[in-house]
Amino acid sequence: MGHGHHHHDHDHSHERPGDTEAAVARDLSVPDGELSPGQLSRRRMFRRAGLLGAGLTAAGVLGGEGQAAASTGFDGGRGREPRDGYQWLAGDHHIHTQYSSDAVYRVIDHVRHANAYGLGWMVITDHGGATHAKIGVDKVNPDIVAAREAVQDTLVFQGLEWNIPAAEHGTVFVAPGRNEVATLKEFESSFDGSVKGASSNTPQNEALAIAGLNFLAEAVRKRRVPDALFLANHPSRKGIDSPHEIRGWRDAQPSIAIGMEGAPGHQAAGIAKPNGPGGGRGYYDSTPGADSFPGYPAESYKTFGGFDWMTATVGGLWDSLLAEGKPWWITANSDSHWVHGDTSDRGPGSDFNANGRYEDPIYKGVANFGSGDFWPGFYSRTHAGAEDFSYRAVMDALRAGRVWVDHGGLISGLVVRARAAGTGQRGVTLGGTLQVRQGARVELAIEITLAGRPNWAQFVPTLARVDVIQGDVTGAVSDKDAFTTPNTKVVQSYEVNKNSGTVTFTYQLGAVDRPVYLRLRGTDGKRAAPGLLGAAVDPNGPAIDVYGDADPWNDLWFYSNPIWVLPRR
Predict the structure, then answer these.
(1) CB under 8 Å to 49, separation ≥6 — which residues?
(2) Which of 53, 216, 399, 494 sits at a 20 to 30 Å CA gap from 352?
(3) CB 564 within 8 A of CB 427
(4) Residues whose CB falls within 8 Å of the CB of residue 492, separated by 6 or more in sequence, listed in order
(5) DSSP assignment of 197-231, as one string?
(6) Is the pTM of this model over 0.85?
(7) What's the pLDDT tens digit per position in 245-300?
């Protein structure tokens, strides 16, 4: 069903002057000093209302004002249930089409499947490289524009999978507008590690990656594109995203570089033969190479309950970033190239190098169980709390960290609020910072809507346990390659003793005398093991996935992004 708003041209030339002022005021890539008096006044109003998120400067949570996220209105007429004042739109930021050298499907194939599986937004991210930069960026755009018109209740972003200089892959995408193609093409031609021969881990190549992020920030600042974001993809797969590189991306452009895949795509890759590829979930099957960070342990090259080691290890790399008080969010997505069990094949006469694409797929009638992917929305979902159904609202939600992720439809909804205990205040939601007086009592209110209906594998998932993870915020680290933090652990676990409806839990932090953060994790309880940093830190974490025999439907988890609590004297 349509929503009566065409998205192929978002240059804002048609908006009322007040709308433009608001859009500029909300754009945190523009410094306060560059705003007009009217724009600055609006930004201050948004800050007071908590509508700009928190921690989006390099200084982070400890260096700026904490923000309380307010409940706002939205257009809820598209069959997506509002929760906590937001329209929680499931999405996927990592999807490949016939314009990728290793994929097969048309844009419209992915969009129609994503829409059918309930996604409200998605990003087309064909592989960066010389052929894509020369041909593919231009050629895929008309297909994306056509898909936006054909399926108007799923937002379709254009992006690409960046070969990050000196590192792994990443999603780069922009808000639709007149210059989306030109901007992405210039970015790829100038900063892609494959195009520039800059894949090795040299200081020069690391600097090129930062220059690419600076280019995106400048494109937004100059209104060349309305907005742009970057997320690191499958960060532990090859061990080449070092801790100092991740910190460098985030600190260089914190409104552009916002996070990483907490769980990679390719989740069917671990299904045992002959019903699956018989590999590692996420195709995490590498060993250290010449450019790998030498400090990473052997376990980091595997997934844990389908999640990347950086995310799955309590007190590990993700927590070491959060303990600095700076935002770094996690997502989950399909990385869909070729779907497990599908009967498609590439069209005859395809010449990718000459044409920048494969011919439209044909259907050969033989199921391909050697593929490791699912359709977008079929298994992995990133739920973003948007203020309305629009491209900018989704990007604002992702940037603000109003995000939780799940596999296999483990739960249907999640509302989390940190608030002053016993005051009746609403507090703040995911990605936000709650400021309280020193010694004030704080609680974390959790409301989970259980699955209640079959997922796409045709069974109703059952949530067995919810874990609250808490860590101290200790500020910037002296060692930029640190990937553990000592004061983060599972502080409370709740058993879930029902399989339908809603469950609520309230975790009491007590009197808060130091900055802390909290995040959630939940599981179907079918596989568990002590965390890599020991049972005292994480007694029942996700178990390391068995290579060649890892049924993704029999090991389901959800994760939330954090909330910070910051006491003030």
Answers:
(1) 70
(2) 216
(3) no
(4) 467, 468, 507
(5) T--S--HHHHHHHHHHHHHHHHHHHTTSSS-EEEE
(6) yes
(7) 999 999 999 999 999 999 999 999 999 999 999 999 999 999 999 999 999 999 99
